[in-house]
Write a structure and sequence with these properties.
By secondary structure, the chain is of the alpha+beta class. The chain is built from 16 helices and eight strands. The strands form two sheets. The chain has a five-stranded antiparallel beta sheet with strand order 4-3-2-1-5, with no helix packed on it. The protein has a three-stranded antiparallel beta sheet with strand order 6-8-7.
Amino acid sequence: MSYIKDLTNFIEGNAFLSATFSIILLILTGMIAHLICKFFVVKVVRKVFFSSHKKDVPLDKDVRISEKLSNFIPVITVYYFLQFMPELPEHLLIAIKTICGILFFIYLSLFFTEVLEIVNNSYSKKSKRKNHSIKGYIQIGKILVHILSAIMILAIMSNKSPAIIISSLGAVAAVLMLIFQHTLLSLVANIQVSSNDVLQLGDWIEMPENSISGEVIDIALHTITIRNWDNTISRIPTKNFLTEIYTNWQAMFSSGARRIMRSFYLDQRSVTFVNQEMLQSMSQIRAVSEPLSVLLDGRDITAVGDRWFLENGITNLTVFRKYLTAYLSQRDDINKEMYIVVRALKPSPDGLPIEVYCFTSSTLWIDYENTQAEIFEYIYAIVGYFDLRLYQHPAGTDFSRLSQQAPAINARDNHI
């Protein structure tokens, strides 16, 4: 006991050894507090934060929060034990308190950042609106937490009130706005995009100017991430969705129908008035009788002469349009509650464009393309029964056939 007493008196008599011993004691205290938090704070966190969801909350949330708590709780412990060490030099005491204050706010900001991240993940998994993202708001919260922590750290280092630090920032507000102009623009854009629901996770976005077409997979504060249909990834600044033109196809999916608006071209010289010879060709088509009877207003086809069609302005194109409209109306993959129109557009040097305008009952891309292909394949095959000809530019085979026919024609002319 005398040796311990002598050692204690010797340490107390030596200021350097006394300070060293106090610092070692503080370090050991912090380490012990850290280990206690590391092993026991998980149960406390689970009981306090997740008591009503013990079965639903995975263990990783408990561990992540407990790790952040185990960082700044030892700092509080060391700061508290400083009160029992008045023998430390004043400058050393101030330095340790300053370091403890800085570490406290650093770890505190990391703790709240982790909590915000957990909130974001939980919202994404449990929200009824699966396509809604709050990641932008979470990032705004993180920025505010870090700003407040930085202000408190500056106040501790300068030994001034946080109010003075905040008031002094007004002098450099212009510089800060210049530095964080993109962040401020992204903040405004993110709030407008999220609050108005003009863009959500899973939406199909198309930006032709940037050659972007794909699905929104992430909405953050500064960027919006899109997975293109060729499996490439594009990141677009959030502010661009306020200044650039883009198309959101989500409304189409919500409507339950997808539009077909495509034209094919007819040779204008093949459009003529209906005659009895055409009627015989058309009668081979089973479903053409109904649109014909509507045009004839109940008259017998055999009793109607060619002149009647001329006087009433009924052409083969008229019958074809009516028949095609009836054909589309009978298809199960065409939405009957929306427009079904077959119309002639303005003629052009490429021929007379006939537009098919209707909506498919399925919005899936594969079903949509199959329906559209079947309709136009049928049109190309059936148009000849109405004495109409499809128009296309002459190809190499056309010139080759003409070149082969030319010698025969010349020989016949010479013979005559």
